[in-house]
Amino acid sequence: MKSRESLVRLKEFQVKEKQRQLSQLQMMMAEFDRMSKELEQQIAFEEKKSGISDPAHFAYPTFAKAARQRAENLHVSIRELKVQQDAAELALEEVKAEFARASALEERDGSARARA
After folding, report:
1. ∠ at Cα 3 (91, 10), nearest 5°?
2. Residues 7, 102 contacting (CB under 8 angstroms)
3. Which residues form a coiled coil (predicted)?
4. What confidence tens digit (pLDDT) does each residue in 97-115 have?
5. What is the pLDDT of residues 30-83, one digit of tens each?
6. For the stretch 42-62, what's the b/e string if a residue is b when 16 or more beta carbons lie within 10 angstroms of its beta carbon?
């Protein structure tokens, strides 16, 4: 019976861990999105200041060019994190189902012990 109790505790820990991982991914995505928006504002300011908004122009501001590349890198990272988030959500659902099964077994065993 102890092994079932420890199994339930293990599954509960796994659920909490998956939820924590999912939360971290979401926080990272939100932070990258915020950083990207700040970069886009800086790009717009630099373009307005220089009067050149075409990145292919020879006199396009170097800072704006670098900021544009950093913003694009952040967008790529956000897309990659979204894939990881989808995988983490699936893993969380699987662990939740395992936890529910383990809890049901423990509850069933607990009621059987009470009757005996």
Report:
1. 30
2. yes
3. 15-98
4. 999 999 988 888 766 666 6
5. 999 999 999 999 999 999 999 999 999 999 999 999 999 999 999 999 999 999
6. bbeebbeeeeeeeeeeeebbe
The sign of the torsion formed by the CA atoms of 18, 92, 32, 66 equals positive
CA distances to 28, 43, 58, 101, 111 from 67, rounded to whole Å, are 19, 7, 16, 50, 63
Largest CA distance in the chain: 86
